[in-house]
Amino acid sequence: MENEEIMGLRKAHLYPTKIPYYKDPIQLVRASGSYVWDNQGKQYLDVIGGIVSISVGHNHPQIKEKMKAMIAEDAIQHTTFLYLSQYMAELGKKISDVAPDGLNKCYFVNSGSEANEMAIMSARVATGEQMVVSLRHGYHGGTNVPLALCGHGTWKYPAQPQASVVHAMAPYCYRCPFNSKNGCHMECAEDVKNVIETTTHGKIAAFIAEPVMGVGGFIDPPVQYHKRVHEIVKSYGGLYISDEVQAGVGRTGKHFFAIEESGVTPDLITMAKGIGNGAPVGAVIAKDEVAEAMKGKLHFNTFGGDPYQAMQASEVVDIVLNDNLIENSKVMGNYLKEAFKDLQKDFPVIGDVRGRGLMLGLELVKDRKTKEPAANEAALLMELSKGEGLLIGKGGLYGNVIRIAPSLGISRSEADELVTKLKASFQKLS
Asked: What pTM did the predictor assign?
């Protein structure tokens, strides 16, 4: 089917929120490793992976072989929680094995939105409280409660209820909300305490945050930020939820889950995207006592943990660990970050380079002194990069942050190709 026909069908039959990335949209039809191809046969280096979803590479051979074997055996595709499935049980154990000590109980869903819905429900049941603290510039999904948690006006609708949620200042160092001039004094962490004391009755159900904020523009707080916030949250009776939908599965280059770098053991971790390497898999893993609080009522997810999806997620865990992809994420992430800082010297439009591992952001500004967001320039850079055969991402409240999140197995030659093509795009932008 030609692109024009697809666009006609989309316009006629899909919600208008489904907006393609490019002015002249591309139809991707094939993929392997770090590369994808469109319907005209053009090859692109994919360093955004859909939306930060491809963790071990497109069509990984190990996953393909396992899937082909299951199909050949007529393995059941759908079972639900009501029947036993080795794939669901094995995945639960594998996630427990890589999670911080004490987090042992999983609940499987289909997306990050559902994972965060379940985590918030679990926290409210376990504590008996309703209020949840989230962060401005944070993003936790597109369903009801996650949109209440969202810290972006661009994602909210007039009819969107806040659902017992309050928002603290984000640890956005490049645009410090406290205009700190003499070094960081962790005012953003202390703001969590202030928000609890002034906008709640003094007790909360939970605090939820991404270790590195994804849709917000790969905002990377000081490592000690989460440790201080964890102390505050605990002092007010709350549970700590680490949203690792984008930052987890080894992407930040130190641990399987990014929150561990801060020395924090959360009460719940949510995940999706990279854990399925593109398959619709999401999960919550919680401390035993949090999960046990849900006992006595019925709760159901029709497709969560189905065999094919659970198998893919289980294989992803094995590949990340056995192929040493967390270390590769650190090494290649450091290499790319330094290369992007070199680009920053040549192109004044790059105001900030930030991130950890293979979760890197370049914030574009019209002027480095005023930090006026360069949203139009970011949109144009997307188009120019596409012309160079490079697929990048975009985010941030103003749409001015270029997001780079390639497969964790990206090679040195692919990283060099990324830098070369991105530099050529910036040159054309200039």
From this structure: 0.97
